[in-house]
Design a protein that fits this description.
Number of strands: 8
Largest sheet: 8 strands, parallel, barrel
Order of helices and strands: HHEHEHHEHEHEHHEHEEHHH
Shape: elongated
Bound molecules: 3-methyl-2-oxobutanoic acid
Distance between the termini: 27 Å
Length: 294
């Protein structure tokens, strides 16, 4: 039996205060880039929190990179809450944002407020995120008026994949760019504390970031946003199906996992694992007594 310490070094705990929506706003004002990553489980949340990430999004990308669905549409509130709780147990200082799944806020305003509230009340999240522009402004207003911080999400909004005709860059024409800017201004006015801009031309994202006072967090939207987010499974090279052009892989965990599993299989088959140091023993006299009675 062995124990593993899961506490951060005392210096790191002392040095880092809880990140809030205000912290993000202040970072924008100071021109300091905001860092955000997605997480769906305890160990990942623990390590990125200890690494010092500003915000952790429990994204509904969960559906694709963890649960293996073709897109994010089948993800349910129960799945999101289950994974949000695990993340909240691991991350103590990062701002925690729960992603509202498809149909948890689109059909009915009361449902939207209640579902948003569940992320805070039942899953340890600090804020929620939802997708869409002008058509979601009322939902944003209702949720914010219940005291729940809302992050908006414009550009490539994966829950509208069927309407967008696939996972495609948005805002590439002048009218589309104008609509995106208008939506960003509307969401700011409706009370969002921050906006994700996904797969948007870099110069448009930079322009929007300058026009609004709330921080923008880009994914495939260039360096001119106030912060950046990546889907962690993409960054770690853990999602084997496809890698969007805007992803930088910082590791090859899929390859590394395959290597480790292959090595384990080979060692078990060759009876090299477990070795003596991986086994436990009993005292000789107990063993001999056991053999006498057996
Ligand atoms: O679900 C998610 O992970 C997201 C990010 C891509 C921003 O919405």
């Amino acid at each position: 039996m062995f124990t593993v310490s899961v506490t951060a070094p005392a210096s790191a705990v002392l040095a880092r205060k809880k990140v809030t929506t205000l912290t993000l706003r202040q970072k924008k004002e100071r021109g300091e880039p905001i860092t955000m990553l997605t997480a769906y489980d305890y160990p990942t949340a623990l390590s990125m929190d200890q690494a010092g990430v500003d915000a952790i999004l429990v994204g509904d990308s969960l559906g694709m990179v963890v649960l293996g669905y073709a897109n994010t549409l089948p993800v349910t509130m129960e799945e999101m809450l289950h994974h949000s709780r695990a993340v909240a147990r691991g991350a103590k200082n990062s701002l925690l944002i729960g992603d509202m799944p498809f149909m948890s806020y689109q059909a009915d305003m009361n449902d939207a407020v209640r579902n948003a509230g569940r992320f805070l009340q039942q899953a340890g999240m600090d804020a929620v995120k939802l997708e869409g522009g002008r058509e979601r402004a009322d939902a944003v207003r209702a949720i914010v008026s219940a005291g729940i911080p809302v992050m908006g999400h414009l550009g490539l909004t994966p829950q509208s994949v069927n309407q967008l005709g696939g996972f495609r860059t948005q805002g590439k024409t002048a009218p589309a760019a104008k609509k995106l800017l208008e939506d960003a201004l509307l969401l700011e006015e409706a009370g969002c504390f921050s906006l994700v801009l996904e797969s948007v031309p870099a110069r448009l994202a930079e322009h929007i970031s300058r026009k609004i006072s709330i921080p923008t967090i880009g994914i495939g939207a260039g360096v001119g946003c106030d912060g950046q987010v990546l889907v962690t499974h993409d960054l770690l090279g853990l999602f084997d199906r496809f890698t969007p052009k805007f992803v930088k892989k910082y590791a090859d965990f899929h390859g590394e996992m395959k290597r480790a599993f292959g090595e384990y299989l080979a060692e078990v088959q060759a009876r090299q694992f477990p070795a003596a140091e991986h086994s436990v023993e009993m005292a000789n006299e107990e063993w001999e007594s056991f053999l006498r009675d057996a």
